[in-house]
C-alpha cells in the first residue's frame, strides 16, 4: 500500500509539474505574441528552424489543447504579422516565414496530423516523467535524497521541450529515409520498365528485319540457282564432239 501511495504521490507531483510547464509556456506565448514582425521572422527562420518548426504548436506558439477557434485566431494574427506585404523591406524572408506558419496551420486543420503532433508531445512528456521516476528510484535505492533537477519546473519544461524536439526530428528523419527508399524503388522499377520496353522493341525490329530479309534471301538463292542452271545449259550446248577427218588412200 505504501508503495502504491508513493507511486500515486509521484504521479501527482509529475502532473503538477506538467501543469506548471504549460502555465509557463502560456506566459511565454503571451510575451512572444507581442514580438515585432522582424522578431517573429527571425524566430521562425533561426538556425535549426528546419527541426524546431516540425512542431506546429511551437510554430504558432499555441497550446496543444487550444480550440479550433483559438487556433484560427492565432494563425490569422501571426500570418498577418509575417506577411510579405507587411515586411516589404525583407519580402523573401517574410515569404519563407509566412509559408512556415501556413504549413503549420494547415497541418493542424487535419485531425489525423493534429493527433500525431499531440501524441509526439505527450510521448515527450511521458519519457521525461519516466526518466525522473527512474532517477528517484535509483536515488532511493542508494539511500540518497530523491531530489532531482527536474523538480524545478523550468528544468522539467526544458527537458520536455528537448525530448519533444528530438522525437519530431527522429520522425522526420525516418520519413525522409522512407521517401528516399520509395524514390529509389520507383526509379529502379522505372529503369527496369524502360529496359524491358527497349528489349521488346529490339526484338520486334530484329523479327521485322528478319522477315523482310528472308524474302530477299530466298529470291537471291532462286536467282542464283536459276543462273546456275542457265549457265550449265549453255555450257552443254557449246560442247560439241570434234570432227574426225577421214584419211584419203592413194
Automatic annotation (TrEMBL):
<dbReference type="InterPro" id="IPR042858">
    <property type="entry name" value="DNAJC8"/>
</dbReference>
<protein>
    <recommendedName>
        <fullName>DnaJ homolog subfamily C member 8</fullName>
    </recommendedName>
</protein>
<keyword id="KW-0597">Phosphoprotein</keyword>
<dbReference type="GO" id="GO:0005634">
    <property type="term" value="C:nucleus"/>
</dbReference>
<comment type="subunit">
    <text>Interacts with SRPK1. Interacts with HSP70 (HSPA1A or HSPA1B).</text>
</comment>
<feature type="compositionally biased region" description="Basic and acidic residues">
    <location>
        <begin position="178"/>
        <end position="220"/>
    </location>
</feature>
<dbReference type="InterPro" id="IPR036869">
    <property type="entry name" value="J_dom_sf"/>
</dbReference>
<keyword id="KW-0007">Acetylation</keyword>
<feature type="region of interest" description="Disordered">
    <location>
        <begin position="133"/>
        <end position="155"/>
    </location>
</feature>
<feature type="compositionally biased region" description="Basic residues">
    <location>
        <begin position="228"/>
        <end position="237"/>
    </location>
</feature>
<keyword id="KW-0539">Nucleus</keyword>
<dbReference type="Pfam" id="PF00226">
    <property type="entry name" value="DnaJ"/>
</dbReference>
<keyword id="KW-0143">Chaperone</keyword>
<comment type="function">
    <text>Suppresses polyglutamine (polyQ) aggregation of ATXN3 in neuronal cells.</text>
</comment>
<dbReference type="InterPro" id="IPR001623">
    <property type="entry name" value="DnaJ_domain"/>
</dbReference>
<feature type="domain" description="J">
    <location>
        <begin position="55"/>
        <end position="122"/>
    </location>
</feature>
<feature type="region of interest" description="Disordered">
    <location>
        <begin position="178"/>
        <end position="250"/>
    </location>
</feature>
Amino acid at each position: 500500500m505504501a508503495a502504491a501511495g508513493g507511486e500515486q504521490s509521484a504521479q501527482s507531483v509529475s502532473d503538477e509539474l506538467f501543469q506548471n510547464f504549460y502555465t509557463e509556456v502560456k506566459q511565454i506565448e503571451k510575451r512572444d505574441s507581442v514580438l515585432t514582425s522582424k522578431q517573429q521572422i527571425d524566430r521562425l527562420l533561426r538556425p535549426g528552424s528546419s527541426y524546431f518548426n516540425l512542431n506546429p504548436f511551437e510554430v504558432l506558439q499555441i497550446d496543444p489543447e487550444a480550440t479550433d477557434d483559438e487556433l484560427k485566431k492565432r494563425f490569422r494574427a501571426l500570418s498577418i504579422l509575417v506577411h510579405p506585404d507587411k515586411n516589404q523591406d525583407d519580402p523573401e524572408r517574410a515569404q519563407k516565414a509566412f509559408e512556415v506558419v501556413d504549413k503549420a496551420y494547415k497541418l493542424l486543420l487535419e485531425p489525423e496530423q493534429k493527433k500525431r503532433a499531440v501524441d509526439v508531445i505527450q510521448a515527450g512528456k511521458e519519457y521525461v516523467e519516466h526518466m525522473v521516476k527512474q532517477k528517484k528510484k535509483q536515488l532511493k535505492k542508494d539511500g540518497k535524497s530523491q531530489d532531482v533537477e527536474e523538480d524545478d519546473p523550468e528544468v522539467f519544461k526544458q527537458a520536455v521541450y528537448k525530448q519533444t524536439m528530438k522525437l519530431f526530428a527522429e520522425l522526420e528523419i525516418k520519413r525522409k529515409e522512407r521517401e528516399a527508399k520509395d524514390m529509389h524503388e520507383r526509379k529502379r522499377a522505372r529503369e527496369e520498365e524502360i529496359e524491358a520496353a527497349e528489349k521488346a522493341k529490339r526484338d520486334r525490329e530484329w523479327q521485322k528485319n528478319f522477315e523482310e530479309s528472308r524474302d530477299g534471301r530466298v529470291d537471291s538463292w532462286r536467282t542464283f540457282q536459276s543462273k546456275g542452271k542457265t549457265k550449265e545449259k549453255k555450257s552443254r550446248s557449246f560442247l560439241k564432239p570434234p570432227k574426225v577427218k577421214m584419211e584419203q588412200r592413194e
